[in-house]
Write a structure and sequence with these properties.
Layout (H helix, E strand, L loop, with lengths): L1 H8 L4 H6 L1 H9 L12 H6 L6 H6 L4 H7 L1 H9 L1 H9 L3 H15 L3 H13 L4 H31 L3
Helix pairs in contact: 9-10, 9-11, 10-11
Length: 162
């Protein structure tokens, strides 16, 4: 286990991330159901600034590829230590909560959070890099599809009255 402990110590904050995940949950909750201005998403960025290599990927969404290289040790440790992956995904149902917010933002055509979703998936170790790439694709797809999806949903709501 020494090797695992050392790798965790060298990950510059993975333990803190796990122990402070409630802080991230609270930061996301602080958006108050997307009532506030989208600038409040910076609260999430600030809550993650202690995790080396992730703050850059959040502040420079187009630098996600570099961020993936920077957090390989986190990804590998999560993939190697089976006990970490499940608790992170299960704490307060954070995955579903984040995806719930994504869904709302997607419908409203505000798709910035999809990039964050990809980074979170790397942290969670769900298919590692695959999901971060999927997050980038989702962001691009969301930007293209967001307004159309909003109109599609809106038109269905309107048609529901007839």
């Amino acid at each position: 286990m020494n090797g695992i402990n050392n790798s965790m110590n060298e990950m510059n904050g993975i333990k803190n991330f796990i122990s402070e995940i409630y802080g991230i949950t609270n930061s996301i909750s602080g958006i108050y159901g997307i009532k506030n201005d989208i600038n409040n998403i910076y609260v999430i960025k600030n809550s993650m600034n202690d995790i080396n290599g992730i703050s850059n990927s959040i502040s420079e969404i187009y630098g996600i590829e570099n961020a993936i290289n920077g957090i390989n040790s986190i990804k590998n440790a999560i993939n190697d230590i089976n006990g970490i992956k499940n608790p992170i995904n299960k704490i307060d149902g954070i995955n579903n909560y984040i995806y719930g917010i994504n869904c709302i933002y997607f419908i409203s055509g505000i798709n910035g959070i999809y990039g964050i979703s990809g980074i979170n998936n790397v942290i969670y170790g769900i298919n590692g890099i695959k999901n971060s790439i999927y997050g980038i694709d989702s962001a691009i797809y969301g930007i293209k599809r967001g307004p159309r999806n909003f109109l599609h949903v809106f038109s269905k709501i309107i048609m529901g009255f007839y």
